[in-house]
Amino acid sequence: MEALLPLMIQMISGALGGNIASGMLRQVGVNAMTRTVAGALGGIGGGMLLTMFGVETPITGLIADGIGGLVGGGILATIVGGVATRAR
After folding, report:
1. Per-residue model confidence (pLDDT) at position 72
2. Which of 84, 78, 83, 67 is nearest to 21 (CA)?
């Protein structure tokens, strides 16, 4: 269970970050399911990168996983939205 909790936090915060970023950029060409899935995958990637590079921050643990997931999800959802909008 201890290994799944950070992963779940990264996925949830990534999905949230993806939806927030897409909403702020008004990417209407991408539906909510695509934004959520791209954000969740980006959240996992962002959390893994943060862990891999061993970023030392004053905030640690689950809060750092949440922030990494939020940023990673927002970035990946923005990229997916840009590609989808460009393809139309």
Report:
1. 92
2. 78
